[in-house]
Amino acid sequence: MRKQFVKTVEAVLKNDPKVVLLLGDIGVWGFNNASKLYPDRVHNIGILEQSTISLSAGLAMNGLIPIVHTIAPFLVERSYEQLKLDFGYQGLGGNFVSVGSSYDYAALGCSHHCPADVPILKQIPGMEIVLPGTPEEFNDLFLESYGNGHPTYFRLSEQKNSESQKVKFGKATVVQKGTKATVIAVGILLDRVLEASKNLDVTVLYYTTLAPFDSAILKKNCPSNKILVCEPYYKGTLATEVIDALAPRPIKIEFAGLPHKFFTNYGTASEHDKFLKMTTGDIKNKIKKLING
């Protein structure tokens, strides 16, 4: 997704003179060409994440469209107060593009993990949250929303789904229809969910935009009132959205997500998936248990 991010932003820089790119000492080499073409609009601010967010807010206040890019824990957790006050409270537009969460940089340990990015950003009123599942989906979603005047978080991943869906900002997609349960697949988890759902009578809804949440499509596609939410961050993050969307129906919700704890084991991302029970087999077991429960 990072290669597509570079291509997309280079095109936006070319076509929109209001766009300014601020880097946090990440992706500098990838944007080397852009920095030569647009030296007054591409800047590596360095390891000054809080200051970078505040600087980008100043740019937004003067009619520019900032794009800020660095690793998720530094962009979200280290700079949370600035995102909340400088963008959320002041109602400014900007784009915040991360890499590395939840544990894409698994071997670097907890300092570079960030399964809390989506949960905490949901607490900022007006913050839009986007988790594309493929590079092509990122391109489509970014071009549709980057200049909409809202603060928007894009979570890039080292992983991707095998095929892109026809995605639209703020809308979910019905990928499979069934009657015995509804499975919500967020971002890069779609491939695992589809494999786990083979030969099962379940609906699969694909979400790339989490905020704003598409409640309407869930209402229309949950005949069983049984829901499994598969989310690649701390589990339970979408619980309120699901409950509100289906109220006042009596529903049963289960989650395939990350436990609320530090991941202190070292290894690859796939090894973390196995340890944290986020594999296709684990999801399939949860679907079957939900159907039969």
Summarize the structure in words.
The chain has 293 residues and is of the alpha/beta class. The protein folds into 2 domains: 2-155, Rossmann fold (3-Layer(aba) Sandwich); 173-292, Rossmann fold, CATH 3.40.50.920. Helices cover 36% and strands 21% of the residues. The model has no long low-confidence stretch (mean pLDDT 96). It contains 12 helices and 12 strands. The strands form 2 sheets. Strands 2-1-3-4-6-5-10 form a 7-stranded mixed β-sheet, sandwiched between helices. The protein is globular, with a radius of gyration of 19 Å. The longest helix is centred in the first third of the chain and has 14 residues, at 2-15.
Short précis:
The protein is α/β, with parallel strands linked by helices. 36% of the residues lie in helices and 21% in strands. The protein is built from 12 helices and 12 strands.
Features:
alpha/beta; Rossmann fold; 2 domains
